[in-house]
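input
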Amino acid sequence: MSINPLEYQPGGDKKNSEFFDEYRMKICERRQSSGLEDLLVQMRAVVIQVEQGDALLYLHELYLMSPYRFSAAFKNKTHNVYVLTSQPDFPRLIMLEPLAKDYADEITMFNRLYPLSSQKPNARYIGEIFSTKDVVETQKTLESHNIRFNYHHETKNPFFTDSHFAFTFPSDFTYNRVGYTQVEIDDYDALQLGTPFELDASVVDSLNQVVQFAEDQKLSSLVLGLDHLATRILAGEREDAILEFLTMSNHYFWGAYNIASMNSSTNVTRNGYVDDDKKSPAKVFTANNTPSFVNSFENLPMPTEDFVRNYGRRLHHMAYEVLDGNHRGGEKNVDYVVKTLMQKGIPFLAHVVGECLDEPNLKQIFSKHSAYSILISEYVERCHGYEGFFTKSNVAALTEAAGKDERYEHGHVFD
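output
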């Protein structure tokens, strides 16, 4: 193990409670003593659901904006299940699409609670799937730690109960799930995802045109893989959400930084078993420093809290790493990628933030949220061997830009 969570000293300037520090250590100790640390390996997939009829549109968007490419498709009793692959060691992307326009389950219920997510009641990031050496023992161990798993009578979608995955019940703090499997992620027969089907020839031809564009414009070689996954949560649930994820995963708490200008903090967990975050992306948790009803006294910015109140607790963005280097004329790769995507009609928030001159640093940008997944795509280039995870100034600028785009007041959306 490259990082021992019992010895690692988290970085950052966000003060945590004594409760958090005590139970962070207790959780890591219990992971080792219970055998969970030896069972869990790395993240093998991320799962996203879209509305009925949006899957092929989202496929095209992913082909243009990400390194993911179609591998297989299956149909179960309630959903089409699409599997996409980037690099063999990187997590797969599994997309769920309800078969019926009026499909409704617990995900629909969560989304309908909030004014902006209710517009796409089935579109949601679901969670991650980790590989484990023994899925039965993993579930047994976690249930002894009071982690609740999904059973047949609790959900309509057989993907969560009939395939060879064991999924937790949606978290009270993030509404995300965590899945586990001991089956090789590309062994579709063993996973039992449903009845396989092929994409129509016209769809394949259209996707191949996007692939050709991405290769011609060098996007395929510049956008590498998932760097991190960022969830937004309520101010008072920050520490609980992080501790819960540490309980369910083999990540360690890397550190937390106060983004004072945005009245929020960014909290990072990473997998200490991989030599590249793209093999098991970091999970980031962002929360307001003060809840909205207290902030009403100070009237500080609160884009993170506003997002949660408008969309619910959920994943906010998926970040892709861009290859460090220069394109033609000395242009940084991330600037070139963004310019190329903008020419194809992809909208972005503000501009690329950060400087990459002669010193190690990073440049980042947010896209506008997808019309199909409700997720923002981030592109991040770590320049000149930059070893830090982020800079506070970049996070502040990105948070501000997203906040302006996600405003909702008195029944109106403000751009």
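quick obs: The two ends are 46 Å apart (CA to CA).
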